[in-house]
Write a structure and sequence with these properties.
The complex is a heterotetramer, with two copies of chain A (517 residues) and two copies of chain B (458 residues).
Chain A lengths: L75 H12 L22 H6 L18 H18 L3 E3 L5 H18 L6 E5 L5 H8 L3 E5 L9 H7 L4 E6 L12 H10 L3 E5 L12 H4 L3 E3 L2 H4 L14 E3 L11 E4 L5 E4 L15 H37 L15 E4 L1 H7 L3 H10 L6 E2 L8 E4 L7 H20 L1 H6 L11 H6 L5 H7 L5
Parallel strand pairs in A: 2-3, 2-4, 4-5, 5-6
Antiparallel strand pairs in A: 1-7, 6-7, 8-9, 10-12, 11-12
Helix pairs in contact in A: 3-10, 4-5, 10-13
Chain B lengths: L8 H10 L30 H14 L8 E2 L12 H7 L2 H4 L11 H18 L3 E2 L6 H16 L3 E5 L4 H14 L2 E5 L1 E2 L2 E2 L12 E6 L9 H11 L2 E6 L17 E5 L15 E5 L12 E5 L5 E5 L6 H4 L12 H37 L6 E2 L10 E4 L4 H10 L2 E2 L2 E2 H4 L9 H4 L2 E4 L7 H14 L3
Parallel strand pairs in B: 1-15, 3-4, 3-7, 7-8, 8-9
Antiparallel strand pairs in B: 2-10, 5-6, 9-10, 11-12, 13-14, 14-17, 16-17
The chains are: A alpha/beta (517), B alpha/beta (458).
Bound molecules: pyridoxal-5'-phosphate (2 copies).
The site of one pyridoxal-5'-phosphate has 14 residues of chain C, from helix 4.
Chain lengths: 517, 458, 517, 458
């Protein structure tokens, strides 16, 4: 690699300088490896008094490594400073509003962190016999019951570790259902506004994707749907409200039409927040629902995970659910069982159980009444923002939205050359996270705002004011917008270079710099 | 009405008025009235935080399995390692915990750099040049590895060794329902994959082995490599990352993909999740890599910066043609692993690996002195886990041990299905899989041996 | 007030904008009151089902307030964002090196935080009968024993809540001792380099201060001391090493001379870190020693507190110690007792007990061997820095120092006009906390560096490099130094104005702005 | 050799060489060899963190007094209030915890602004315009108030009401050994200070009362104010800040100084420390204020900024003439209090105050139905705490209650010295001071009454 753009830094430890703390300017933070000094240690292990027999006497020598795996060798003090400083280079819900559409970045109650660390929950081995984990089984079963009540379904699996895992699980259930009826159906229909995980899951589920256009209302084109339906159709995947934030008003007709041809309806629960306690997927006619507990039920997203994607199903799909599942026996005790025609495991153990504990905590605090309030206020906030932004950022479909609103910067771009991405980047300077950009794909210069119910009117006002300022700036000084963000720890990054000249590790970096040994 | 919403009644009224509406309910007019929930969800009313905390603590107390109650000799892919306060504190910082996927790299350098460091560590542990930003758990990682390998070899026949964790094998088979891969299970013979037993299955597109196997035994990886070369197959190794502290890396034996479970690096046992799927591969396969990948680049001012890269593989861009459907992964656990591995350092990783080997050996020697307790695989060296057989049924023995305050391991009858190719059918009911990490002391093991001595008496 | 410099900001809530997050520039963070919206709430209390009788029926109306105390009314979400953002405006050991002389800002092990939160320690009421708090009493007694061994004393009180409280306690002990012997001594001698708390404590202890000059060695002027000694002298207060970081070599002679006239020797333990396991105050001849657990034994300083200032004494002062004190009975159980001639309580309960638990944790981890290493490496680091800095920042007294080094920017000031304060402020831009400036008072343009043992050689190198750069800048561009710091959340603040136009509360601010109602 | 020091052996060697020395020991050459510790301290060797954690947990287990074991009906200046996770999390952030005193305001705006907010809250609660950044605890605050008041009135006679917490009175008296103040204890009569009893003591320079008194009774503050006016004395009120959620502020009654214990605002019981001394005064006295004070100002660019101010009062500048010797205070607890009061808000403070009044009253009504259990002060309204008498000695009753899982309060015989002017000598041995905060439920109180019914049977 000759592209001489890799920044040269010392390979040796950079010292205790708070070099990245934005508190002190926007300087670089070395990697942990650059702090490393061979021989320096941080770890402290329990005194165990087991004879320190040489490992070569215990294992066949041909399997043993001659050199230890080289890691970063730092003091606890430097470890703390490094990761504290890195945390200062990271935006988060805890720092400010995060109106990232489709992601439901609401406040994550701190009490849930404590629950997820409780002794008796956090320190339990997943292979412990059922008799000793009655609490965990009860917790899981209660979670399943609450999720079924919220979605209007008969039973659920808690195993899927995230939404996409839930989708694939749901599609395998769909396949198993048809197969059990002796049918081999090949196609699954999804709207063109669908999230990328939907088509990807369909493929992995063994089906072909049939894409459905969105009509001028921003909804499923009913005629196109009907035309696409036949005996090959295994089912349809929808999220409702859809990814435009609009409720599929024809859901009853859609459900009937799909069921008519023997297909099933899959509900992508990413947008469940909008309808909590208002309407239930089961009541709309859906057969399979996955939920993103890390969206709707406020389990924190952890910078990209973990999540939890339980899948709830209607009666007829219950026998196919993954197993083992928690069950309550007649004597009141809890145990495990596998449904009769279970598709098998979809997780190494029982799912992201500590995420479930967080979600159940959230669900109990809110209760039935609180969940309804969540939906109401999420929708109220989104609509307030929609109307308030209309002057400069018209909604892609101008009508009452649900929990999120997709606006278009298309007109702005044509007039000023300022793109949706520029707006998103400039908003970072204003102290807000950007909205989702360029999704759904069908809206030109899409900006998708999901304020969520935990943001205040004052926050929405401040957000709208900032966006208005940006709109005026687009007219007066478009270059400033192209140059944004300027106050962040780094400015726009060269994504093309990252792909062209792949440096995925410290070693690749050192090699590119000619530093490798 | 406890909740986290800021709206006062006056604000709601003003917002509704701003929208030209009379009530909040009108916002839901697009939803057919007939379908709407009448009378609210059939759930209890909300409860304030302290009440809910009390009820969550009740669940915790119903379990008789916390570290205060049972000393852990169970492993099988979930290990009781030291997690120091410092790692929990740093990993628990709100900026890491409450961030989303780093879609805006300018304000996500914290997570991105931590993942870059994590990828480096996983790469070094696996002996392969590139690692992703995590998958759900070990089972998801091995499943994705199979998908990658089939795509690369264009051969759907998957030799799946029975030395791979039984649950992971189940998951691979579940997802093969969708992909249609032809999964051929390769039995173990004395702890090593017996490929001769499946020689009629047709040439593989991929061979998947565990190293160590879930029984702790070591595969002949050189042999696996040459079998792969012969068939044009990819070699996938499910490797325990702690064991790699003493073992040659799977990458050094020529693996194309190395996967594993990273829970041991700072993530609590947590009844099984969230855990951390590790995934590393050769550069040849990087464009088939599932999940996120962070790369170094520069910003407009030439400063070093990190960003998710090779995004064209991912579902949001490639949609039905994506290499994988994964979106949300286990980033926080990856950040925690980077912190924990930073805490361990070169010496620490080696030390926990060596100590785990020694503790497990000391345990094995102790228990096999008991009358009727035998190694499942006499004379076979093991790492991480080891299986024994007892005169009584394993679950009875484990029940008795629990009364003495020990989680004695996992019954192979619970872990495996009947007819599993990894264990002799007649021994399965009597076999226990055990493990001792660096946390187990001599005293604890000695006491355990005493307890087991009593427990195996009929 | 007509001085129109108060920055006008909205009184209304400023919204969820991460306005202060330096991540996003150096903008302002509103006060919590400015986020307040009447009627908004965050608190959640346990359901208790006690009849909600009107308070006017329970208490005399004339005592009741008509309006509630007006506090800030915010959501939990905004509370988290506000204080998380405030934390990003704060330097700390966790972010980088903090070489603040006399303060011993070493790494605070995270495990101690966990100990201080342990159920069974943190949730115990201080008035619980002794039989139920045997663990606490044992913990305290072990702490006392360890501290006595470290200092070479006979017994200690754990009650004083900080160093200054320890000093005053020590001085009262001194007074009580002399009084019990029928003597009324009036003077306490302290060197001119002493910390301000020493003279202040002497006054509050009922004595007059006699100030002793420092000689050209940077040490107590032995002749001056001898001249000052007579039968009025209650004692002398020293820290050794002294605040110049130098060991009082004549300590034996000093002790003998003071004892000769019937005086006592008080050891200010602020500098104990330098001599752990090397020499003990008791062995030097001191009678009374206070320790700053928040310095020497790494309990975190909390932005200004809490601390803990146990006082250990020699045999003859034991009967005067504050009470009640933990004691072990002959049957092995623990209880409380008050020394025969106790001066009484100096704390509402038993001292800053959770701070003691942290310190004991630190002490046990280090053990006797580790404490010695602490002293060695603290002194090694300070001397390395002293020699490394000598070119541009000569030490005030050029010889081997102990755990800290006082250098002078006097020559720099005369040559370039750049003062010690400028250097300190400029260092902030480099990612380091400043050293202590202008203390001890006897050194011109003093800069007092105490690197502590938890900083690495690489950190010291980076610190020295930064200081060298600053020294060169002082020659080439002194104005840049006067203008420093420029990258911090705020720049130099107007301290004079703060005192002249006192605004100690939001209400004072609102009044000054004419916003008050 | 576990520790937190980064030095490798090579680094030590290179540093020693850089200094031109042969060994580290030479650094200590200035210290007379004869005085040096020979053979190391007589302390055990260092132990790794997990071992030490285990031994600290052993201390915790030796206590039989945690929230899991005893339901708390004790108060007396230390109260069992709700502390939510959110407050503990924010207050535990490393930036707040590991900072020093804000000597460099440019990098300490976080703590400074939090303290500014704290000062505002304390000012509003006390009803006085200025509050400091905290003192050690309530006892230190009242001691400092006495010092301030004597300096202001130039009269050393201190009327110290016996309604002030007995331990705080002890502390005032201890420190009066140094200042030489003439402390005159004013007995209580039916829960109110009986100034007539000390009319021969000479005019006071300061009158200190508790409001509520430590027995929960209410003083006649208007009367105290007029007595102060008469004598030219300053009025110091030790006021419970939670009680102020329902009571008129002491400031509104004309107090010159209001002090109190702030533990109730987010700080754990912690066996008595660290707690939080609150201190507020009139503007007239601000130049005599002990401890730190944060003020708003501007930076060079005119931005709002905070800084410690009126520093000329402080010991580091004024030395032997300082108003106080305090340096390190309880800043972290003050930051935590600001967070907790932010969480409570206007309504929350009122609610915990009202609930505490109601719970304590419900408790009193319940226990006084028991044969032989009487209020110590029949018919006197109380806030926060209330004292009862029982037929048996108080410590025996408390012992029995502990066996039933209750911390039943404090025996006045343990809290007060013999001859204390606040309680009738013949009742002292039989009196228990009790309190119930907003955390106590009806069920808990009912069960407590049942337990007490049994406990008072001879
Ligand atoms: C509409 C939609 N569907 C599915 C998903 C996938 O969920 P997960 O990221 O949990 O796999 C997402 C997440 O971004 C989503 O927004
Ligand atoms: C030399 C010296 N003595 C005494 C003290 C006072 O200790 P504290 O702040 O704990 O009251 C200090 C603290 O700065 C100090 O440095």
């Amino acid at each position: 690699m000759s592209e001489g753009m890799i920044e040269e830094t010392h390979k040796s430890a950079a010292g205790g300088r708070a070099s990245s703390a934005p508190l002190l300017g926007d300087d670089r933070e070395p990697t942990l490896f650059e702090f490393s000094v061979p021989g320096r240690t941080a770890y402290q292990l329990r005194t165990n008094e087991i004879p320190a027999i040489d490992i070569t006497e215990l294992l066949p020598v041909e399997h043993l490594r001659s050199e230890p795996v080289e890691l970063a060798d730092v003091s606890e003090r430097d470890l703390v400073a490094h990761f504290t400083r890195l945390s200062h280079r990271q935006f988060a819900v805890d720092l400010g509003a995060y109106p990232l559409g489709s992601c439901t970045m609401k406040y994550n109650p701190k009490i849930c962190d404590e629950v997820a660390g409780l002794p008796g929950l956090a320190d339990v081995h997943p292979g412990t016999p059922a008799a000793l984990v009655q609490g965990w089984l009860a917790l899981m079963l209660e979670t399943e019951h609450v999720l079924c009540e919220v979605t209007g379904m008969a039973a659920a699996t808690l195993q899927p570790a995230a939404g996409a895992a839930g989708e694939l699980t749901g599609l395998l259930l769909m396949g198993a259902y048809h197969e059990a009826r002796g049918e081999k159906r090949t196609r699954v229909i999804i709207p063109d506004s669908a999230h990328g995980t939907n088509p990807a899951s369909v493929t992995l589920g063994g089906f072909e994707v049939t894409t459905l256009p969105t009509d001028e209302r921003g909804l499923v084109d009913l005629e196109a749907l009907k035309a696409a339906l036949d005996g090959d159709v295994a089912g349809i995947m929808l999220t409702n409200p859809n990814t435009l934030g609009l409720f599929e008003e024809d859901i009853k007709e859609i459900a009937e039409a799909v069921h008519e041809v023997g297909g099933l309806l899959y509900y992508d629960g990413a947008n469940l927040n909008a309808i909590l306690g208002v309407i239930r997927p089961g009541d709309m006619g859906f057969d399979i629902v996955h939920m993103n507990l890390h969206k709707t039920f406020a389990t924190p997203h952890g910078g990209g995970g973990p999540g939890a994607g339980p899948v709830a199903v209607s009666e007829r799909l219950v026998p196919f659910l993954p197993g083992p599942k928690p069950v309550q026996h007649d004597d009141g005790t809890f145990g495990w069982m596998s449904p009769e025609h279970s598709i098998g495991r979809v997780h190494a153990w029982h799912g992201n159980t500590l995420v479930l504990a967080r979600a159940l905590t959230y669900l109990k605090i809110h209760g039935g009444d609180g969940l309804r309030r969540v939906a109401e206020r999420a929708v109220l906030n989104a609509n307030w923002l929609r109307v308030r932004l209309a002057e400069h950022y018209p909604a892609a479909y101008d009508k009452t939205c649900m929990h999120e609103v997709v606006v278009s910067a298309g007109a702005m771009k044509r007039k000023t050359g300022v793109k949706g991405l520029d707006v998103a980047k400039r908003l970072l300077e204003e102290g807000f996270h950007s909205p989702t950009v360029y999704f759904p794909l069908i809206v030109e210069e899409a900006l998708m705002f999901e304020p969520t119910e935990t943001e205040s009117l004052q926050t929405l006002e401040a957000l709208a004011d900032a966006l208005d300022r940006i709109a005026l700036e687009a007219e007066s000084d478009p270059d400033a917008l192209h140059a944004a963000p300027r106050t962040t720890p780094v400015r726009r990054v060269d994504e093309a270079r990252a792909a062209r000249m792949l440096i995925p590790t410290q070693d690749a970096r050192d090699e590119a710099l000619g530093l490798s040994t | 009405m406890p909740d986290y919403m800021p709206h006062t009644d006056e604000e709601i009224a003003s917002m509704v008025a701003f929208l030209g509406l009379d009530s909040i309910e009108q916002l839901f007019d697009a939803i057919p009235k007939a379908l709407q929930v009448a009378g609210g969800l059939s759930l209890p009313q909300g409860m304030p935080e302290p009440d809910v905390m009390a009820s969550m603590k009740t669940f915790a107390k119903m379990n008789k399995a916390g570290a205060d109650q049972l000393i852990c000799f169970a492993g099988a892919g979930a290990y009781d390692h030291e997690i120091p306060t410092v790692v929990r504190t740093l990993g628990g910082r709100g900026e890491f915990v409450t961030a989303y996927t780093p879609y805006q790299p300018e304000v996500a350098q914290g997570v991105l750099q931590a993942i870059f460091e994590f990828q480096t560590m996983v790469s070094r542990i696996s002996g392969l040049p590139v690692a992703n930003a995590s998958l759900y758990d070990g089972s998801a990682a091995v499943t994705e590895a199979v998908n990658l390998a089939v795509a690369a070899s264009k051969n759907e026949t998957v030799y799946l060794s029975s030395g791979v964790h039984p649950h992971w094998r189940s998951v691979v088979k579940t997802f093969a329902r969708g992909t249609g891969h032809n999964i051929v299970e390769v039995p173990l013979n004395n702890g090593v994959s017996d490929f001769d037993a499946v020689k009629d299955a047709g040439p593989p597109g991929v061979i998947v082995v565990g190293h160590p196997t879930y029984l702790g035994t070591l595969e002949d990886l050189a042999d696996v490599r040459s079998r792969c070369d012969e068939a044009g197959a990819l070699m996938v190794v499910a490797a325990d990352p702690v064991a790699t502290g003493v073992l040659r890396s799977a990458g050094s034996w020529g693996a194309d993909v190395v996967v594993g479970e990273g829970q041991a690096f700072g993530t609590s046992l947590g009844f099984g999740g969230p855990y951390l799927g590790l995934f590393a591969c050769t550069m040849d396969q990087v464009r088939r890599l599932p999940g996120r990948l962070v790369g170094e680049t520069v910003d407009e001012e030439g400063r070093r910066a990190y960003v998710t890269t090779l995004r064209a593989r991912e579902q949001d861009i490639r949609r039905e043609k994506a290499t994988s459907n994964v979106c949300t992964n286990q980033t926080l656990m990856a950040v925690v692993a980077a912190i924990q591995l930073g805490w361990l350092g070169t010496q620490g990783l080696r030390e926990i690996a060596e100590r785990s080997v020694r503790s497990t050996r000391y345990l094995l020697e102790g228990v096999t002195k008991i009358d009727g307790v035998e190694p499942l695989l006499p004379g076979v060296a093991t790492v991480r886990d080891v299986a024994i057989t007892t005169p009584l049924k394993a679950d009875l023995v484990l029940e008795r041990l629990a009364e003495e305050g020990f989680l004695g391991g996992l019954a192979l009858s619970a872990l495996t299905d009947e007819g599993d190719g990894s264990v002799e059918p007649n021994l399965r009911e009597h076999a226990i899989l055990m493990s001792a990490t660096e946390k187990r002391t001599k005293d604890e093991i000695d006491q355990f041996v005493t307890a087991l001595t009593k427990a195996v008496v009929k």
